[in-house]
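Re: the multi-chain job from yesterday

Posting the exact lines I submitted so nobody has to dig through the queue logs.
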Amino acid sequence: MIFVEHLTRRFGELAAVDDISFQVAPGEIFAFLGPNGAGKTTTIRMLTTLLAPTSGRIAIDGLDPERQQNAVRKRIGIVFQDPSLDQQLTAWENMDIHGALYGVPRRIRRERMKTLLTTFELWDRRDEQVQLFSGGMRRRLEIARGLLHTPRILFLDEPTLGLDPQTRNQLWTQVRQLNEAEGVTVFLTTHYMDEAEKVAGRIGVIDHGKIVAIGSSTELKERTKTATLEEAFLALTGTAIREETAGAAERMRQMARMWGRRR
Amino acid sequence: MTAIYILWLREVKRYTRSKVQIIASLGQPVLYLLALGYGLSPVFRRSGAGSYLQFLAPGIISMTVLFSAMFSGIALLWDRQFGFLKETLVAPVPRVHIMIGRTSGAATTAMLQGLLVAVVCVIAGFRPVSLAMVPLALGYLALIALVFAALGTTIGSSLKDMQGFQMVMNFLVLPIFFLSGALFPLQGLPAVLAAITRVDPLSYGVDGLRSALIAQSHFGFLTDAVVLAALAAVVVCLGAWRFTKIEV
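And the result, structure tokens for all chains:
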């Protein structure tokens, strides 16, 4: 479903993603782990048509994200790290606009919105403005929305950041449910190792733009002779803290936190 | 086409739902209208130029449209990082459609806000000289809204973070307002100021509005319309170009 070969992306001198190759099978849940600045988001941006690779090859359901941009966009659903709902609109309206933008016919849209909102336990609140929703509800709505146009692959970029364990647990249960029911492939990133271990069939670990290990969590633990995935992760990527310079997006996030509008 | 329509509708819905914001943004124009309109009225009358409130009202309506249109354009910066815009930018829809939908929505809400202030002006004592000319005034209002909504989109697409926002306010939006003749007549100005007012796009908007509402014009109503329409075409293209360059 996702096929990546010798993928490289340079920003000037820096190779943010450096010659990586991996594959994700249809229906699989794949977790992409790595410390901050390791190249996770850059990889996701390339897979989701938002950034052109410097070199290498990507196939999403057999299509090239760079040349067949719209065809790829129709086949994928994305939940971003930052919120992307319209807070002044209701849950229903947020979904409806998404469906219209992705060209889902009205009748099918209605039915599917009902199914998804019910699955994610938002049906009763569908006519409320999103600004009244909790962080967890917003996340669930974003995931439901991402699935509205029946994508083949769902990309989730740190979807559980800032949520409490109960909400995280519920969210992953629902994602797994959808994965089983519809066979949608899931590509996720997270900093919570327990989530990756519980949800994902296979895990890829990226550091300094290179994939340092790939396999099931058992395989990773065996390879590094560690007891937990967290220890395996640290063994693979080292314990040094990555000091990143805050880019424009990070500065905006800081400002958002200051103004208290983030989630 | 669907994309354009629903994004336009989204802006209008958001506007009609933010009642607190609508009231809040009436504060400034009302203050200008009352403090300047009534305050400077005696001086204006003594100089033989007639009623200052009559003169000022089109200026204040233009100001409202300018601020409102520019703000929602620049708010794009926020919207693309933390808002719905990001979601639309990854949809299988041409970027230009998204830009047109959003910009026309911003222009529409700016115009609605302008109309609201126009009502306040009438309550305060402003009277258009001829009701037959009101449709023409609406045309000028629409052009002003479009020019500045598109300019806001251009800027909002080009800024990297909120740091630039203050710069844009102080060195672009406020000068456009103060140097447009919204507050003072353009006749007999010092040469430098006269030259500046001539390159300020809002000057033509205010002048056009005055020609329609109080039958006074400095540049001539046709010049106003042509300049604004040409400018709108240019800025919309510029905005569309900058918008397609946004990186998500």
